[in-house]
Structure formats: structure tokens, C-alpha cells
Specification:
By secondary structure, the chain is of the alpha/beta class. It contains 7 helices and 5 strands, in the order ββαβααββαααα. It has a 5-stranded mixed beta sheet, with helices on both faces. A hairpin with an 8-residue loop joins β1 and β2. α1 packs across α4 and α2 crosses α3. The longest helix has 24 residues. The mean pLDDT is 95.
């Protein structure tokens, strides 16, 4: 059972990212402010849900939230500033877009770059603890999956419609055959299937 909030006094926004460990594509982040009484029986950490469950929850979260925003940082900028800083930047871009200003940020994970003067709390595995972080994890994941589905049409041989840019055996084998494309993260230590065998 997820907790509805950390405290009752300040307006809380939950934040999470998706695609941090991928070989290709952007990193996405989402920020969500939920009503204190928001609840849905399916709501959970996005990684614990099936794709159809995430797709079902996304419009409900968007409709019921007080405010939400989704943002991304592309692979070229990831290569320039590194994936950790890119994740923080994507979260900051979300916060810039929120129609309601939060007073406390609940961050999934153990690190965050301070945003303006707003207090934040890093919570390891927070997407399985608080509703707002779980909701943010679902938005970040579904928006990123949708984006990778579009990129798949441009480079279908990497199987991004299935692996979403993660370094699966199929993806690594495709890199062995076709090499890297403009959407791959060049700063990552990307292994082809051949490199793993050597």
C-alpha cells in the first residue's frame, strides 16, 4: 500500500526519471502533484506494472493530478553533461513547467541537484513508497516508451519497440551488425554482442 504523502503541511511533488540506463534515446522525467486523497488500486512503481496497466493509469493520473509535467534531455546532451546531470536537468525542466509551485520535492533515488529554494527529500525506491513518485514514474516511463516507439520506425533493426533502447541481447547483436546510430549514447560503454564474447 503506497503512502499518500510524506507530510500534510506543504504541497508535495513527486519526481522520477526513466531511461537512465539505456544505450539509446533521451532520459525522461516527470513531476506530479496529486490530491492528498488520490488513490487507485493499480498504482505502483512503474517497473512493477505491465505496459497495459501503465497505459491505463497515465490518463487517470493526468486528469486527477493537481499538476503534472514531463520533460526530456536527448542523447547528445547526455553525452555532453553525463547521464546523472541530464537526469537532474530533465527533472528541473519538469518543475519549470508545473502550473502549481510545489513546496517540497520527493525525489526517487539517492541524489538530486537542488532546485531554486525548494526543499527536497531523496527517497531510495520511493516509487514503491509514495503515490506521487509512483505516478511520476508511470508518466516518465509511458512518455519515454512512446517516444522510443517513434524512433523505432526510423531505425527498426535495433528492436526499440521492444527493448526501448536498453542493452538487451537483441539490441547488442544489432549494434554488432549495424553499428551505432545518431540516437545512441556515445559516452556510454556500449557493448556489441561481439565485444561481450571477446
Amino acid at each position: 500500500m503506497l503512502l499518500p504523502y510524506l507530510q500534510k503541511i506543504f504541497i508535495e511533488a513527486g519526481l522520477d526519471e526513466a531511461g537512465r540506463g539505456c544505450y539509446a534515446g533521451p532520459v525522461f522525467a516527470a513531476a506530479v502533484i496529486l490530491p492528498a486523497d488520490f488513490n487507485h488500486p493499480l498504482l505502483n512503481d512503474s517497473k512493477q506494472l505491465q505496459e497495459k496497466e501503465r497505459d491505463l493509469l497515465r490518463p487517470i493520473i493526468e486528469k486527477e493530478s493537481i499538476a503534472f509535467a514531463v520533460a526530456s534531455v536527448d542523447n547528445k546532451e547526455i553525452d555532453t553533461i553525463n547521464i546523472l546531470q541530464a537526469s537532474f536537468k530533465a527533472m528541473h525542466l519538469c518543475l519549470d513547467q508545473l502550473s502549481t509551485t510545489p513546496e517540497l520535492l520527493l525525489i526517487d533515488g539517492n541524489r538530486f541537484k537542488i532546485y531554486k529554494t525548494i526543499t527536497h527529500q531523496c527517497i531510495i525506491k520511493g516509487d514503491g513508497i509514495y503515490t506521487s513518485i509512483a505516478a511520476a514514474s508511470i508518466l516518465a516511463k509511458t512518455y519515454r516508451d512512446e517516444y522510443m516507439q517513434q524512433l523505432h520506425h526510423e531505425f527498426p533493426h535495433y528492436g526499440w519497440s521492444n527493448n526501448k533502447g536498453y542493452g538487451t541481447a537483441f539490441h547488442r547483436e544489432a549494434i554488432t551488425v549495424h553499428g551505432l546510430c545518431p540516437y545512441h549514447r556515445k559516452s556510454f560503454n556500449i557493448h556489441s554482442a561481439e565485444a561481450l564474447i571477446d
